[in-house]
């Protein structure tokens, strides 16, 4: 799964594809918490989304691995991709904690726009017990973080300054599907990921 004994933080997502916005988030965290090692967890089937990822799981995993290959403090696990059925973060966390892959009470990296959706997640009260939230604060005010802390006072929340870098996976896929725009998608992707997509002729 991974050769690291312990990670202090994790970042989950479809990574469909892994793009510069993801790199930006990781680098913002690194500036704020330079001792943390981060585990990336490409999602299997997201139960809260009607449609699954466009790219095959194996390709998404490869893109993430290539996209962070130069970041020695990052690792990647296929635990959700290897599991059949929907992926629930709380179950993944309990597995990784039991295996010693994640340090106790790891930080879950999340954008401030995700906070309003977290209470809908499976076993959310248990999630609050297991993790702290490392919130990438892209807004100029801390409104989303304040509201979340007010509604869930037991949550452990750390705001991470993250200047906006708006990169849309949907826009990247749109460009990749258009022969005229395909090359322009390279502007939004790590070079290694763009090369991987071209090699696999993906997202047509």
From TrEMBL:
One GO MF annotation is: ATP binding
What reaction gets catalysed by this protein? nicotinate beta-D-ribonucleotide + ATP + H(+) = deamido-NAD(+) + diphosphate
Q: Look up the record and name the pathway of this protein.
A: Cofactor biosynthesis; NAD(+) biosynthesis; deamido-NAD(+) from nicotinate D-ribonucleotide: step 1/1
Swiss-Prot/TrEMBL keywords: ATP-binding, NAD, Nucleotide-binding, Nucleotidyltransferase, Pyridine nucleotide biosynthesis, Transferase
Output one GO BP term.
NAD+ biosynthetic process
> What Pfam families does this protein's entry cite?
CTP_transf_like
Q: Give the E.C. number(s).
A: 2.7.7.18
Keyword Cell cycle on entry:
no
Question: Top EC class per UniProt?
Answer: transferase
- In this chain the Cytidyltransferase-like domain maps to 11-175
Please tell me whether the keyword Transferase is annotated for this protein.
Answer: yes
The task this protein performs is described as:
Catalyzes the reversible adenylation of nicotinate mononucleotide (NaMN) to nicotinic acid adenine dinucleotide (NaAD).
Family indicated by similarity? Belongs to the NadD family.
Q: What is this protein called?
A: Probable nicotinate-nucleotide adenylyltransferase
Q: What organism is recorded for this protein?
A: Alkalispirochaeta sphaeroplastigenens
**From which lineage does this chain's organism come?**
Bacteria, Pseudomonadati, Spirochaetota, Spirochaetia, Spirochaetales
